[in-house]
Design goal:
Layout: E1 19-20, H1 22-32, H2 43-49, E2 53-54, H3 60-66, H4 74-82, E3 86-90, E4 96-100, H5 101-122, H6 132-145, H7 150-160, H8 166-176, E5 179-181, E6 196-198, H9 199-203, H10 213-224, H11 229-236, H12 242-248, E7 253-257, E8 262-265, E9 281-283, H13 305-308, E10 318-321, E11 324-334, E12 337-344, H14 350-368, E13 373-379
Parallel strand pairs: 1-7, 12-13
Antiparallel strand pairs: 2-4, 3-4, 5-6, 7-8, 9-10, 10-11, 11-12
Helix pairs in contact: 5-8, 6-8, 7-8, 10-12
């Protein structure tokens, strides 16, 4: 158990009083996210470094990996799915993430309290706590006999207990059992409803409880730092992380942002200066860089937030120009023609537009390479 070290002398490295601008924080983020320069790295290694990839939409991680890795091909991630080396399941913030199988088994127990909150908050009134073990056992038997959709799971549980709330019973299973979405869900180009089985059954291994919250925080900082305690809580969904940071303080660098907030970081992690040149990058829906902080100004200007985070919950695919979100994009197809439509949030310079079109052509080829015709359209101010 991580003990409190609130009385520990709060001394840090020589960088302890250094103030980082939004551009400094932006470049640190891009460097760790492999968005300053694509890395020659396996997809599995990249997914682990990123501590998973947000994956409400199955195709999003493919684009996210393409933007980060040299020579990434869809077949590499497809092979990982088919070999059960990666899975999609509820993880941080109780949202669907693509993680390696190793991280699934190690990290799911750490974020389990986040997932439990949804059951307590939304469905607790429909079931007694004493009902949960029996329902959990029945649900596990169902999904381990054959993968099931949530509607199928609710129906089968309701057949057994017609006097109980079917959706609440289904939510018990979704909460208490780490349900992975089985293939072909997640395979690029496959159209299938999400069917689930337990991670233990799919991977042939039990969850382990060897990893700690401190290790999760350290990995978060390596991929997203420098960051505050509140940022780490926003990313993970966990609460009361201040004592964890205090335990880690002697091993970390402490810094400040321009608002005076204390930030923590891994001493050896890259922190290139804010004047570092950042290339054009296309990010998919729900990319983690847009969801990893309480204060997201290091990646998006607050005046653009409503255009990227609409009320329907869909986080839009975005374009990074000079490191920051300056537009959004989508690909549409009609017959044998694919079009990349880019909506600019501000007027681009001629050089910026040329760079966007060049990177956009590569993106369009990655997404719709088999089409006979491809086009790019930029609209906006």
């Amino acid at each position: 158990m991580i003990g409190s070290t609130m009385n520990r002398k709060k001394t840090g490295s020589p960088e302890s009083e250094k103030v980082l601008s939004s551009r400094d924080l932006n470049r640190a983020l891009l460097a760790r996210q492999m968005l300053l320069k694509r890395k020659k790295l396996s997809a599995a290694s990249a997914i682990e470094h990123l501590v998973g990839m947000q994956s409400q939409l199955p195709n999003s991680p493919y684009v996210g990996l393409w933007s980060r890795l040299t020579g990434f091909k869809k077949s590499e991630l497809i092979d990982l799915y088919n070999n059960r080396e990666v899975v999609r399941l509820a993880m941080m913030r109780s949202t669907i993430h693509l993680v390696t199988s190793r991280d699934c088994l190690a990290l799911r127990p750490i974020v389990q309290p986040v997932i439990e909150r949804g059951l307590r908050g939304g469905y607790a009134r429909f079931l007694r706590d004493s009902d949960h073990p029996e329902i959990e056992a029945a649900g596990r038997a169902i999904v381990e006999h054959a993968p099931a959709t949530f509607s199928e799971l609710s129906r089968r549980l309701n057949d057994r207990w017609p006097d109980r709330h079917a959706e609440a019973m289904s939510h018990v299973i979704r909460t208490r059992i780490p349900l992975v979405q089985v293939t072909p869900r997640g395979i690029w180009g496959a159209t299938s409803t999400a069917s689930h089985t337990s991670a233990e059954h799919w991977l042939g291994s039990e969850l382990n409880d060897h990893s700690t919250v401190a290790e999760l925080v350290t990995r978060y900082l390596a991929a997203f730092g420098p960051a505050s305690v509140i940022d780490a809580q926003a990313w993970s969904g966990l609460t009361r992380l201040a004592p964890v940071f205090e335990e880690l303080r002697p091993t970390l660098v402490t810094l400040r942002d321009e608002k005076g907030r204390e930030l923590f970081d891994i001493p050896s992690a890259p922190r290139p200066g804010g004047d570092t040149i950042a290339p054009i990058r296309f990010l998919p829906e729900f990319d983690n860089v847009l969801l990893a902080y309480k204060d997201r100004s290091r990646i998006i200007d607050p005046k653009y937030r409503a255009r990227v985070y609409p009320n329907n919950g869909m986080i839009q695919p975005t374009v990074l120009v000079e490191g920051f979100v300056e537009g959004k994009w989508k690909v549409t197809t009609a017959g044998q023609k694919a079009t990349l439509q880019i909506e600019a949030f501000r007027r681009f310079t001629k050089q910026e537009k040329t760079g966007i079109e060049a990177e956009g052509e590569k993106l369009l080829k990655f997404i719709a390479g088999k089409t006979k015709a491809r086009d790019i359209k930029v609209s906006g101010p």
